[in-house]
Design a protein that fits this description.
There is one protein chain. With 449 residues, this protein is mainly α. It has one domain. The protein contains 17 helices and no strands. The radius of gyration is 21 Å and the shape is globular.
Length: 449
């Protein structure tokens, strides 16, 4: 028994240390892409409520589209970590190379879809002036979709190699450039016209394209590129060789897409409630999503740790890696939730000088504190399941939670029951609790096997 306890303690320490080492740069990378949206919203908050609403609604379906694309590329990190676990490092470069044309194709397809944003907003009963403004925003953002997906598949590759730092540094630089471009294009400084929400979208699109160029260049020129066969030509049959890669991606992309569509539907509910409710929900969701990046970082690190253990067929270590990730995210996001509860008014005031918007946003931020642990926990356990080779089970559970529970639940709470925007946040809490419960039960079952 003492020997077993020592084995468990030493491995637990190693998993926690590795999770933190891998997750910290990934958190910065994931948070960085959202930080652009947060900074956009904060800077637009110095203009008018309408500009915040245009940007908030325009970004919502763009996030659904790009997050689905990112999910379709998740096989990059799974396959790379499995290859590392099997000590087949020369197989890693071809995995990345196959992902690049796939990511570019998905990005161009996303850009075409974004051109039809305005008619979609009219179809979903958004107020006409909001539909026009948001339609312009998403059309501009669409041009940055190929760069976004190329950046993420390359970041996934590096995360699978346990090298998340380069993507983090690219993201930090990108955010600094985004602030400067926002200052020029939103407010009309430096001789540029004041373009408001459209200016923020242009800045983001330029920056995301540059990010892809920078990170791909890093991988192409890294010193040990030959070890990983980064420059090895794909040759004929590369699409067929990536079948397993895409299989993981189809499952995770469907799951990401379902969850994103569900959250997008909630934003449309907020739009029906009016410009003030939409702006308040947008700001609350940005705060929540920014903290949620901690969960995404831990989820990615957990997937890598579980995937490496899975690749070497160490089943006990695979289970311990998954449960360690869940415990760590609950601990960290619980602390963040306490801060939201204590300082909701001050946090809301960071984003806008409009008193009415602060008053409307603060209660939503406070209530969202209760959703953090459940929503963060479910994304970590889902990633652990995918690292363990699961494909469609997490997707099915997301369908139940976010389509079967959240979409109708938020509608009932917001409209028939009359809770408005607070009802939308309460519905998210309910669905996330269902999701983490189902996913944890599934992981417990496969860990026992």
């Amino acid at each position: 028994m003492p020997v077993q306890r020592h084995w468990l303690t030493s491995r637990l320490r190693r998993h926690v240390a590795e999770l933190i080492r891998l997750a910290a740069p990934v958190v910065v990378t994931r948070a960085g892409i959202l930080t652009m949206a947060v900074i956009d919203a904060a800077m637009l908050g110095r203009t008018t409520v309408d500009q915040v609403a245009f940007h908030g609604l325009g970004v919502t379906p763009f996030i659904v589209i790009t997050v689905t694309g990112i999910g379709l590329l998740f096989g990059t990190v799974v396959m790379t970590s499995h290859a590392v676990g099997r000590n087949e490092v020369a197989a890693c470069g071809p995995i990345w190379r196959r992902s690049l044309p796939y990511a570019a194709g998905l990005g161009f397809f996303a850009a075409v879809i974004c051109l039809f944003g305005e008619p979609f907003f009219h179809f979903t009963a958004q107020p006409p002036e909001i539909a026009v403004g948001a339609g312009s925003v998403i059309a501009i953002l669409g041009f940055g979709a190929p760069g976004t997906l190329l950046f993420y598949t390359t970041a996934f590759f590096l995360e699978g190699l346990r090298r998340p730092a380069p993507a983090m540094f690219v993201m930090i630089i990108a955010n600094g450039v985004n602030v400067l471009l926002n200052w020029l294009l939103i407010f009309g400084n430096g001789g540029f016209p004041a373009m408001g929400a459209d200016g923020a979208a242009i800045a983001t699109t330029l920056v995301r394209t540059a990010m892809a160029v920078m990170l791909i260049s890093y991988v192409w020129w890294m010193s040990d590129r030959d070890t990983f066969a980064v420059r090895k030509p794909l040759g004929r049959g590369w699409w067929r060789a990536g079948r397993a890669h895409r299989r993981f991606g189809f499952a995770s992309g469907t799951s990401y897409g379902i969850e994103s569509v569900a959250f997008g539907a909630i934003s449309f509910y907020a739009g029906i409630l009016g410009a003030l409710a939409l702006a308040a929900y947008t700001l609350q969701h940005l705060v929540f999503a920014l903290i949620f990046m901690i969960a995404l970082g831990i989820a990615s690190a957990t997937s890598v740790r579980v995937g490496i253990a899975h690749g070497r067929e160490d089943w006990a270590d695979r289970a311990l890696a998954g449960w360690t990730g869940l415990g760590l995210v609950v601990l960290l996001l619980g602390g963040c939730g306490a801060v939201l509860l204590a300082y909701s008014q001050g946090i809301a005031a960071l984003f806008t000088t409009e008193t009415t918007l602060v008053v409307a946003t603060a209660p939503l931020i406070a209530l969202s504190a209760y959703a953090l642990m459940a929503d963060g926990g479910q994304v970590v356990v889902a990633s652990a399941l995918r690292g363990a080779g699961e494909t469609w089970a997490p997707t099915a559970m997301h369908v139940v939670s976010y389509v079967g529970v959240m979409i109708p639940g938020c509608w009932v709470l917001a409209f028939p029951m009359g809770y408005g925007a607070l009802g939308l946040v309460a519905g998210i809490i309910l669905a996330s609790t269902v999701s983490v419960t189902l996913l944890s039960t599934r992981f417990w079952f496969i860990a026992r096997r």
